[in-house]
Amino acid sequence: MSEATANATTPLAGIRVLDLGRHLAGPTAAMWLGDLGADIIKVEWPPHGDHGRGAGPPFFNDESAFFLSANRNKRSVVIDCKVPEGQELFRKLAADADIVIENFRPGVMEALNIGYDRISETNPGIIYLSISGFGADGPVADRPGLDQIIQGFSGLMSITGFEDGPPVRVGIPIADLLTGLFGAYGALAALQARERTGKGQRVETSLLESMVGMLAFQATRYLNGAGVPPPAGNHHPINSPYGVFRASDGYITLGAAGAKRWPQMCEIIDAPELLEDERFQDNGGRYEHREALADLISAKLQTKTVDEWVEIFNRAGLPSGPIYDIEQALEHPQIKHREMVVDVEHPTMGVARLLGLPVKFSDTPGQMLAPPLLGQHTADVLGNLGVDEAEMERLEAASIIMRADVIPQLT
What is the predicted pLDDT for the residue at 406? Predict the structure, then answer.
């Protein structure tokens, strides 16, 4: 591990990960591990590297916002794993690695002779994380699985949106991101198992399995005979009132369901008549008539602004909040205080503003390094592998490896 990435105080100090991921799910899994201090070697293929580098707009000094969002805390090495010499270089790297992450279609890594069985021959302790769209096997395992395809296939889009409207995708690539999180979770569990057994193993997850696994009570209600759940719009699919309401100058979120909060809310908004209304005598009734109830609550909220109601409700212990856009959220003092927006030095951008680490540790903090340029660390990593300059020049001339042309020195 290079001095630039070695940090003995981080939770995963000393763990080396080879990230073969592209686009989002695989790179995200590796990034979560890098946040915790693992040495992430991002193995990219020439000439353009991870496809995410070209995803945009927007671009900042030719750096894609998409790529920046999923590749912090990594080192970039460019090796053509489609040719035998590149495959051999990868296997040499893997001989000293703890985890390999890939998110190609099932069978691709085996065809390239760098799949789990081949790598584990020389490194029986390897944790090999494979991420796919629909799963490693099964009737439709060979289909390409993009995020929105999986949002639809999994049932998620059928419960997102409003009953009188079309299905709605989640506003972020939720399938990719959660699959990355599940992948990191699985890899860490396999590392812990290796501590007991001394053996590595293959770990598999997919966008489809991740999304189905997150359907939670919506799936459980169907599986146990309560029928197919409809889209819930901006209101909770079980509890009421719990959703979005309109104040005098905008929208507010409010959670006032339950035997204690319901009468408390009615008192605060001066609506004793709601307590007497036969439609709203229990949660089932309030849920059944949630749209009518929402209209009545919104009418009462017209007397004050969003900020005024948020202050009143929170002072009384009722969960409530404004609905911010991304700018309002990321500029809020609470989010800044929790270091969820950070500035990092970047070789070409100068300063890159990135999201911070969602998990904090009292004794073993994570790390924050800028996403790498394509091939920025090829010379460093291969040099540590014993490849001399003459051999690197030969490999580069044959387009088997790439090194970044110019790496400005960080101040």
Answer: 45
User: Half-sphere exposure (CA, 13 Å, Cβ side) for 178?
Assistant: 17
Contact 129, 187 (CB under 8 A): yes
Rounded Cα distance, 252 and 306, in Å: 6
Q: How far apart are CA 256 and CA 235, in angstroms?
A: 12
Residue type at 271 in one-letter notation: A
Prediction pTM value: 0.91
Question: What are the phi and psi torsion angles at 131 (to 5°)?
Answer: -115, 130
With contact defined as beta carbons under 8 Å apart, do 44 and 90 qualify? Answer: no
Reduce the DSSP state of residue 68 to 3 states and report it.
Answer: helix
Pair 114, 81: CB distance under 8 Å: yes
Query: What confidence tens digit (pLDDT) does each residue in 255-313 have?
Result: 999 999 999 999 999 999 999 999 999 999 999 999 999 999 999 999 999 999 999 99
DSSP 8-state class, residue 104? S
Domain residue ranges of the chain, discontinuous segments joined by +: 16-214+334-402, 242-246+251-322
- Residue among 176, 343, 380, 405 flagged as catalytic: 176
CB neighbours of 224 closer than 8 A, spacing ≥ 6? none
In DSSP terms, 74 is beta-bridged to 40
Q: Which two tokens stand for residue 158?
A: 């059928």
pLDDT of residue 209: 98
CATH 3.40.718.10 for the 16-214+334-402 domain, yes or no: no
| Contacting residues for 300 by C-beta, under 8 A, at least 6 apart | 269, 270, 271
Tens-place pLDDT, residues 101-158 = 999 999 999 999 999 999 999 999 999 999 999 999 999 999 999 999 999 999 999 9
- Based on its alpha-carbon atoms, the radius of gyration of the chain, rounded to whole angstroms, reads 25
Percentage of the chain with pLDDT > 90?
94
Q: Which pLDDT belongs to residue 88?
A: 97
CA 368 to chain centre: 16
Cα 371 from Cα 61, distance rounded (Å): 13
Beta bridge partners of 77: 43
Please answer whether residues 90 and 385 qualify as being in contact, where contact means their C-beta atoms are separated by less than 8 angstroms.
no
Name the amino acid, one letter, at 235: H
Which candidate, 139, 136, 203, 215, places its Cα nearest to that of 174? 215
Q: Is-catalytic flag, 176? A: yes
- By DSSP bridging, strand 63-64 and strand 59-60 are antiparallel
* Nearest partner of 239 among 322, 324, 298, 319, judged by Cα: 319
The CATH architecture one would assign to domain 242-246+251-322 is 2-Layer Sandwich (3.30)
